[in-house]
Amino acid sequence: MTLAIDPIELASRLVACPSVTPREAGALTVLGEALEPLGFQVHRFVSGSPPDGPVENLFATRGSGGPHFAFAGHVDVVPPGQGWTSDPFVPEIRGGLLHGRGAVDMKGAIAAFVAACSEIPEHRGTLSFIITGDEEGPAIHGTQAIMAWMEERGIRPDMILIGEPTSEARGSAMW
Predict the structure, then answer these.
(1) Do residues 145 and 137 touch, judged by C-beta distance below 8 A?
(2) How close are the terminal C-alpha atoms of the chain, in Å?
(3) Going edge to edge, which strands form the sheet with 126-132?
(4) Would 174 be classed as within a structural domain?
(5) Which is nearest to 24 in space by CA: 50, 44, 51, 8?
(6) What is the pLDDT of residue 169?
(7) Are 8 and 100 contacting, i.e. CB atoms less than 8 angstroms apart?
(8) Domain for residue 45, yes or no?
(9) What is the pLDDT of residue 1?
(10) What DSSP character marks residue 25?
(11) 92-94 and 97-99 as β-strands: parallel, antiparallel, unpaired?
(12) What is the DSSP secondary structure assignment for residue 20, as one 8-state letter?
């Protein structure tokens, strides 16, 4: 039996967290609460100090041995700025799309990762999540800190999928 995760519901819960760098504002709690019932062991740790921190990061893992497939991303967002037609931290579906700060970059991708894992009850090897709260800011207390933490423990994924929207091209026009 699988414990299906609704990616829209999870993405909406993440968007509702005003996680402007370096604050995680509850986003890592929401993520941990989604991952633990799926059998992931969740590790959270803080690195850095003011003015660029402290930054909270998350590493979650399920399974053992190889291959080790990891999902990487961030829950922090840039400040909302001007021009919003609604509260940027109140998720809203309009025109079939989820609107809110971080829906695209990159809380939606993280929710999709979790939903995909919820459909894989048994697997060979290790699945992990490498999630930082410091990608949109100075980016020194997030991914770098997680990678150092992983290296100290001899953790090295074979493959990492990053759900960052880095292209302005859409659909098959990218290729």
Answers:
(1) no
(2) 38
(3) 41-47, 55-63, 126-132, 68-74, 159-162
(4) no
(5) 44
(6) 63
(7) no
(8) yes
(9) 40
(10) T
(11) antiparallel
(12) B
Place of tokens 């991303």: 73
Residue 25 lies in domain? 7-76+90-165
Assign residue 143 the CATH number of its domain. Answer: 3.40.630.10
Tell me the Ramachandran region of residue 170: left when phi exceeds 0, alpha when psi lies from -120 to 50, beta otherwise.
beta
Predicted local confidence at residue 174, as pLDDT: 38
SS3 54: coil
The pLDDT tens digits for 49-102 are: 877 778 999 999 999 999 999 999 999 999 999 999 999 999 999 999 999 999
Q: Which residues are catalytic?
A: 76, 135
Strands (E), the chain: 41-47, 55-63, 68-74, 92-94, 97-99, 126-132, 159-162
In this structure, are strands 68-74 and 126-132 parallel, antiparallel, or unpaired? parallel
* pTM, full prediction: 0.90
